[in-house]
Design brief:
The protein is an all-alpha fold. It has 3 domains: 78-171, no CATH class; 188-294, Orthogonal Bundle (Cytochrome Bc1 Complex, Chain D, domain 2), CATH 1.10.760; 311-444, Cytochrome Bc1 Complex, Chain D, domain 2 (Orthogonal Bundle). It has helices at residues 11-22, 41-53, 92-97, 106-109, 124-133, 159-171, 188-201, 238-241, 244-252, 281-294, 311-321, 337-340, 357-365, 367-370, 405-414, 418-434; strands spanning 381-384, 387-390. It has a two-stranded antiparallel ribbon. Helix 7 crosses helix 10, helix 11 (311-321) crosses helix 15 and helix 13 crosses helix 15. It is elongated. Bound molecules: heme C (HEC) (3 copies). One heme C binds next to loops.
């Protein structure tokens, strides 16, 4: 599969890009070679057979062939293999006697570090040098069917490379170090290690911050200089933030839609687009485990039951949600196009099934600790009598309520309905109209850029 992702362009976007690319044309399409062989279905199956046989999937990610084993001999302890287990084939005697060199091809001969054999070479060193200089040498003089021939390709190594490789192989001995000195992680560190290969392959770090302090390519661009909230999200705590099943769905199809794909599934208000990559199932699994491991999350994830709020609790939560101290809908998208032109944060209706409640609470308590520089307000809650309580004014109904206000707000958001959100949005819009702003959209102030508070 190609590393080039799909940008899910609309036909118009694609036409514009194509029109531009056509201006760069160097050759007429009719001057390209005939490719009617592409329509022969048998050739494809024949090809797949050879891809398996030659183990292309050992080096290449090929969708559908993830489970193919490696075709080569294990080399971990190659240096301690007894000589009888190295198959010199028809040259066993020649190697023991010395004096005759079985390699005749001049290019391959030039690869032998010691030159053509004079002394006996029936040992590990002689075997490795000959194997690397001409990998199919042990087939010489034998009559084998195509599928039983040696498969290691000739890597066209130099003398110096073969000398170094032979030294490495001779040193690959059993028991080099006790196991506790070897780095073979079996825990979350293995998931991180494997995930990095995928992250590197697709250059995710060109757009996303994955390590504290790491700069992305986008951050260096002039247009984002004073528009941090227009950048793709930082992913340092992504595994703690979202449900892994949701994450897998998102990575597969970041538009989160089968019909309306010309958009970002979550942050529709961003100009930059999360591309659709053609990940194999194997890569998808690795990425999901990678994010969980990076945030030290238990895997698999078992979502907690969200308690259903009573009418009274809903009303209390709503008063926090719409508090003028930090009107939650101010920066967060609602689906209303006029409002969303200024949105800088996701729609709360997407929280259910996506966000982990623990992370939501931590985020509300101290967003700067999770995403330094974010415009999400800090200091919304304070510690009081062993509980987190809202810092702003609260209505009388809170008297005697002895649970965390953060938890109440999280539970409310996780059961928010479109009707409820519309009603709160309309009420907040009215109150800001009353306080002087002329419209609901205006109530998002300075483009929602919102310096904290
Ligand atoms: C030893 C590992 C290895 C094996 C085995 C291998 N390849 Fe490759 N292949 C590579 C590497 C590495 C590249 C990247 C370009 C390069 O370094 O040559 C590559 C590049 C390619 C490319 C060019 C891709 C591009 O877009 O530029 C094709 C096509 C290809 N390999 C096909 C195959 C096929 C088919 C097989 C099996 C018959 C195979 N390879 C076996 C390592 C391998
Ligand atoms: C061209 C820039 C770009 C590249 C490259 C890119 N992303 Fe993204 N990514 C985005 C944008 C923009 C968003 C916000 C999308 C949204 O909210 O719907 C995003 C969102 C995400 C999210 C967050 C989902 C959420 O809302 O919690 C994850 C996870 C993610 N990307 C993973 C990756 C991985 C893994 C790669 C590499 C394979 C990658 N991205 C490459 C731009 C990019
Ligand atoms: C000044 C703007 C602003 C206000 C007001 C605001 N937020 Fe946010 N909020 C943000 C930003 C920015 C983000 C991070 C966006 C991102 O990750 O792309 C965010 C993210 C969140 C998230 C995670 C969203 C997700 O889908 O990943 C939650 C939950 C949240 N805020 C809750 C609240 C609550 C509750 C309130 C009201 C008490 C509130 N916010 C008020 C700007 C704001």
């Amino acid at each position: 599969m190609t590393v080039m992702p799909s940008l899910r362009l609309s036909p118009q976007d694609a036409e514009d890009v194509a029109s531009y690319l056509v201006t760069l044309k160097k050759q007429e399409p009719s001057s390209y070679a005939d490719a009617s062989f592409m329509d022969d279905p048998n050739l494809k199956d024949e090809g797949k057979k050879w891809v398996r046989h030659f183990g292309c999937a050992g080096c290449h990610e090929i969708s559908g062939l993830e489970e193919e084993g490696r075709i080569g001999t294990e080399l971990t302890i190659e240096g301690s293999k007894p000589i009888e287990r190295l198959d010199f084939a028809l040259f066993t005697e020649i190697a023991q006697r010395g004096g005759t060199e079985p390699i005749t091809d001049p290019d391959d001969l030039a690869r032998l570090p010691e030159g053509p054999a004079k002394q006996p070479w029936y040992d590990q060193k002689g075997f490795f040098e000959h194997k690397l200089a001409e990998p199919n040498i042990w087939d010489k003089g034998k009559d084998k069917p195509e599928t039983e021939k040696l498969r290691m390709p000739n890597l066209h190594l130099t003398k110096e490379q073969i000398r170094a490789l032979t030294t490495f192989l001779l040193g690959s001995q059993e028991n080099p170090l006790p196991p506790n000195y070897q780095y073979r992680p079996l825990d979350y560190r293995r998931d991180i290690q494997e995930g990095w290969w995928v992250i590197k392959k697709y250059n995710c770090m060109g757009c996303h911050q994955l390590i504290p302090g790491q700069k992305t390519s986008l951050m260096g661009m002039a247009r984002y200089k004073d528009a941090q909230e227009q950048l793709p999200p930082k992913l340092l705590t992504e595994g703690a933030r979202v449900d892994p099943e949701w994450l897998q769905r998102f990575l597969k199809n970041p538009s989160l839609s089968t019909t309306d794909t010309n958009r970002n599934g979550v942050r529709s208000y961003l100009q930059v687009r999360m591309p659709t990559f053609s990940f194999s199932e194997n890569e998808l699994g690795k990425l999901v485990r990678f994010f969980q491991a990076l945030a030290r999350q238990p895997f698999p994830y078992i979502p907690e039951e969200v308690p259903v709020l009573t009418a009274k609790e809903t009303e209390m939560a709503r008063s926090l949600f719409s508090s003028t101290a930090a009107p939650c809908l101010k920066c967060h998208a609602t689906g209303d196009p006029t409002h969303d032109r200024f949105a800088t944060a996701p729609n709360f209706l997407q929280a259910r099934g996506r966000l982990k409640p623990d992370w939501m609470e931590r985020w509300m308590l101290d967003p700067q600790a999770i995403a330094p520089g974010t415009s999400m307000p800090s200091g919304l809650f304070k510690r009081d009598n062993g509980h987190w309580v809202f810092s702003g004014p609260t209505p009388a109904s809170f008297k005697g309520y002895d649970k965390d206000h953060t938890k109440l707000l999280v539970d409310y958001i996780l059961q928010l309905t479109p009707e409820e959100q519309r009603r709160v949005g309309a009420a907040v819009g009215r109150s800001s109209a009353a306080s002087g702003s002329s419209s609901g959209a205006k109530s998002t102030g300075n483009g929602g850029r919102g310096a904290p508070e």
